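Q: My collaborator sent me two sequences in one message, no labels, and asked for predicted structures for both. Can we handle them in order? The first one she listed is below.
A: Yes, handling them in the order given. First sequence, followed by its structure tokens:
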Amino acid sequence: MAKATLPVLEMSCVVCAGNVERTVSGLDGVVSASVNFAANNITVDYDPKKISLQDMKAAVQAAGYDLVIDTADSARQEAERNAYIALRNKLVVAWVLAVPVMALSMWGKAIWTEWAAAVMATVLLAYSGMEFYTKAWKMAKAKSANMDTLVAMSTAVAWLFSMFLLIFPDFSESHGMGHYVYFDSATMIVAFVLTGRLLEERAKNSTTSAIRSLMDLQPPMAWLVGDDGTEKEVPTSQIQPGNTIRIRPGGRVPVDGIVVDGNSFVDESMLTGESVQVEKVQGCNVFAGTINGNGTMAVEATKNSDNTVLAQIVAMVREAQGSKAPVQRIADVISKYFTFVVISLAIITLVTWIAIGGNACLSHAIVCAVSVLVIACPCALGLATPTAITVGIGKAAENHILIKDASALEKACKVSAVVLDKTGTVTEGKPAVTGLEISPDTTAGQLGILLSAEKQSEHPLAADIVSYLEKEGIAPAVLDSFKSVAGKGLEMKANGCSYWAGNSRMAKENGAVPESETNGTTVYFGTDSNLLATVTLIDRTKPTAHDAISRMKDMGLKVVMLTGDNETSADIAAKEAGIEEYVASVLPDDKDKYVQKLQADGHKVAMVGDGINDSQALARADVSIAMGSGNDIAMETAMMTFTTSDLRLIPESLRLSKRTMRIVKQNLFWAFIYNVIGIPVAAGALFPAFGITLDPMWASAAMALSSVTVVTNSLRLKFLRLKL
């Protein structure tokens, strides 16, 4: 199976998105397809053995749209830019012709002014408005309808009625009608609709700015080192695994790789959020998009430009932005039938006014029917959810929060309980030596024996002990023998004497009874029954833990810590972080059961973890969050992944989800209210009592404004500042 997220061109409304989605979904070999109108893309799961991207493109083109199947970002951008330029050119021509048509209609009374307006209106509709008619025709052949259908019908009716009266001027007088032509309405409808679409496209492009910002982190060019040592600048897309590239001072790393020569300090904050530069020497990994310091490095590429960590992040964000939140389903169903309902209402409006006033009301009836066709806007309804979701996911990505799909945002706003793993989540996950107690008779040479033994040990704590002793100036000793004892520690010989190092169990077995442990992890070192030294290691809580927990409590969330560690370690970590409720010595299954218990009590649970032992509970939780430094299984299971270890991302991600869903509800309310109020007014509901009618051109302006309003409201999320 394969998955691809591809740009879709020439979609004008949410109904178009539905048509594209149904077209691709119905193809043999396509498992699922989801179109995001706000992002102008489609995410497809398909079997490449049964269907190709070219087959999908052909099907989409047959339906009246286009699909960009070139996966290169440059190709995507070029296609989208060309489509934008074409729309802009049509808009310019529309306004150049629409303004004089309006002027002639308002102030020109002679027959030649009407004919001049007719000529300019015809040219405008033939050029700027032709796409409405071609798409409407394709929709009709497919027994469907969309926003283009409404625009095509309204402008065609206005133009045809006006041309009829212009050619047969006696008709209006003989039927008691005023002589009115509506070339201005037809032209202004096209001009306003195209203006709305251009503004909508610009606004929609702003919703995906996070994607472009991430893409811009990867430099377009790289310095390739040839076999003879010469260097030449080539496009980053040409770099292949095994190639050697030169990273110059201040330059960005083009692809992931391993340092093979030179050294430098690299700013990896775009990936990790850490402001401190990381030293890179031979054998160290470097990642695309990170910024080199003052040194020069030769790097062997391990991935091409499409498979870097940065590219994977971009793909994940793009896929998430293309997903649909459950709340969008209602809007999709309504939008599917919206156009047909509007056409029906326009016909009812036409018939009703003719029935009321006879031929004398024919012009009024046509104007009202045209206004109904124009003012109705399924776009606002269709844009309400995806624009907010797209901006919200992009905002999250800018702040090191990777969201797997839109449903995660919707679920996160309902979270009432947060369950935290301890090691690697609340704590650093890297115990550090905090103290070394030495017996009075212990020599530096004996500590050297401990140093040499820990160097040979594979225990996770050994490296930190080695580092600490070396910093204390301890020199390694020569060991006669070395043995690792599972579950206990180390046994070694040096200078004819036997030594041991390990936990309290080993100390007790050797007769060196340790004092009771009060905190952290303790490693004992001795010879026979003599205790020579005690090394204390503590897994410190993360600097942001206490602030993060405090914020979650202020939000009214229940915070619980679950850990497989002992009671003492759990108690220390909980007190330092400000966690009042915790459970120690739990197994993975116990974590799962605890999450189930909270859910049974009515809580919506967010589980935060980083290890394999957390994956079961992560899968069970309503919202699962993985720390980026954690295990791949945990990250694969989780709905959200933090690329930094900052625990403040937990409350901030929940706050972002609440704000996003609030804007979704605002957008949906506006879209519904706009149509509920606008359509009756356009139909002439206020005319009997107040003499108020809505001119079609102002109806088109209102329609354009409604979509722009929804998108603009969603863009407010871009200005939300997460407190990190």
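Q: And the one she listed second?
A: Here it is, processed independently of the first:
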Amino acid sequence: MGIDRKAFVRPERRYGIYPIIHGAVAGDLSRAERLERLGFAGIVGNVPYGRTFPDDAKEWRDTAEGFKDYIRRGMPVWIYDEKGYPSGTAGGAVTDAHPDTIAEGLFCYEYWRTLSGPMYYRADTPGDKLFRAMLLPLAGGEALDVTASANERGTLLMDIPAGEYHLFLMSSRRLFDGTHAAHSYSEPRNYINLLDRKATEAFVEVTHERYAALLADEFGRGVRAFFTDEPSLIAWNIPRGVYPIVPWQREFPARFQARYGYPIELAVVAVVTKRGPQLVKRRCDFWEFVGDGVAENFFGVLQDWCRAHGVKSSGHMLAEEHLQAHVVNYGSLYKCGKRMDWPGIDQLNSEPPALMNDQIIPIARLLASFADISGEGESFTEFSDHCSRMANKQIGLDWIRASVNWHVAMGITNLTSYYNWDYFAEDDIRALNQYTARLGGMIRQGRRDSRVALLYPEASIWSVYTPSVEPNAMDHSEACRRVNDAFAKTSWELLHRQIDFDYVDEDLINDAEIADGKLAYRDRRYECVVLPAVTVLSCRTVDKLAAMLAAGIGVVVIGDVPAIARETGEDAPFAAKLLPHLASGKLAQVPLQSGWTLPGPARLRALPRPIQLRPRGLSSVLTGATGSGTIVDGEAISPNILSHTRVLPDGSRLVFLCNMGGKAYDGFLQAAGAAAAELADPGDGSFRPAQTSHAGDALVVDIRLRAYDALFVLLSPTP
């Protein structure tokens, strides 16, 4: 079959684990020799630091020589770009030299006393830099700007017009107290504004440029990537706050006005108070503006610099597990993720039950989707047993290996780590690295066979998210939970049924072409798009979905058909364009309810399922197999088995299966369009024939997996 067997039997070390080493790497030959002996792929490291990134030229030269020593051993280097986290200040050097780049927030104050006009009213502002003072009419309608009523001391002296109003003030302020930066494990410090291009450029000058001056000859070879760690807008309260905060930057008013054609303060009123005309549109406009700002002014600057210097930009963001965090921390994770060459996550828990938690988004699959779709194909996880250590628990290598399997199933290709390897025997560590490298070599062959596109419900969460004063500043309203939970549960329903999928946004759907009954984008060929509790869509996207249905491409709607147009924020006749396709079976509508599951064949003919896994004892189900490889039973699932299918150039398929449960698994893999099967064991690099039978035109493969075990199934195509 069309795989590189040598890469499996004798895997390349560079596909193993990259330990993260902060500080000194120069002259530490004993550690370098040990890591080489243990089979580690390379390292993630940085220059030693004191208060800031050092000015001592010798420390920089020694660090560069230390990196080169690893490279000479065949161990590539990723450069960690900060002192501690979050990345962006170079240990405070950027904000010390450029105080105008410190993060800002717009603090919003609503005075709940009803002002009944006409009347004269005097109000003191909180003492910050007043941006706008607005009167919010309780009867509805547009807010009134009364900023001009403020005197030089900031006191408002106003004539209140007829009607009843609340006073709403917006004041800009530096962000620090109570923020993520204040709770850094490194040290409390001011943080940069990710919306300010000047801040990122100053950060690059202090860090990236210094490394380039010493290691440019190794860029793109021994030095693979720059690793940025947990940047965020920090416009949120870790302890309980007093006032809601939205991200801010001094150029916002002019830029927002030029882009959207109305003042930004009207969007802020919509975001914070949930009142005013064009509510949904304005809320979406604001967060779209923020997301684009972070993507271009932080991640975009880093990516452009890295590409110009022959290295990859990589990193991960903060608190990615919930959609609400995406909004407040960076506006849009999807926009930011697309501006990293090798996007990643941190996975701080290696316990299998925690990894299989369907209450949170499987964020590894989301970030790996960016890499798969972009064509780069490379992603990473900073994985560790941090949560176990905090609970005074020591995990075993079986769980670490299970964590490796979980990441591979999600599509992650590189693993960096914070494990304390001193707890384990050297032979066991070498075996784990060889195992990891074996998986890494296999999943880089061919392309992921994702036939389902799951929509990232960006506009839907923007439309309902409201900044909070609660701890961690997450909006846990019913409206937000509905969108987030449906997104997470839909993702896990697909994973539990071994259905490969990519996360997509509206831009991808609209840029893709309809060809041969599929939605084609670069090398992806989607047969179905799933909308998880989506309430807001652009008119263009709905027209594209209707065209897809007419061409025989499936659409699955979780909950109600979207009803609000992104362009106007008003109700739109979307149902009339989509619901007529219910009768054909290409459109499926799944009720949204607590504990919902995807229904069976009559309801989801639109959802392709080229492979199906069935526990032993349910073999009778196999008689319902169809040549199309669609769902034949909605209840017979294997929830602890994750899969990852790749299509090879010769048409054969490579299926990775891993058991995340604590009990052995005994069952069948049913594959449409396969003629023969072979099994590959990543534990020892061996190949063996599979035990097979047939059900109709489907091949049935016997599958046995020990607890936390994995294997590959190689499927040759039918002639």
